[in-house]
Amino acid sequence: MTVTSLLDMHFAADHLDDGPRALLDILADTRAFDGCLGVQVVTDVADPSHVIAIEHWESLDHDDAYRAWRAGPGASGLGAYLAEPPTLTRFADAVAL
């Protein structure tokens, strides 16, 4: 079962230039992580500080391993650029309707 994870973030006002650049650098490691099928970043057209990373994973286990790595040796320092902690929501593929 593939998993789509949405990481909803708001950059701090003083990091609107360097925050997105840092995120792109950080996501290079995400894309290279075992089980990552791809990452897309979208920006709110009404609020450029609001971005969402849309991550696609082979399985929940792959995503869990990635989150554990980011919480430990793979810590990114992204929080220093954000106005508040990010929100993570994970979705499984829905049954065809």
Automatic annotation (TrEMBL):
Domain ABM: 11-73
Signal peptide: none
InterPro entries reported for this sequence: ABM_dom, Dimeric_a/b-barrel
Protein name: ABM domain-containing protein
Species of the source: Leifsonia poae
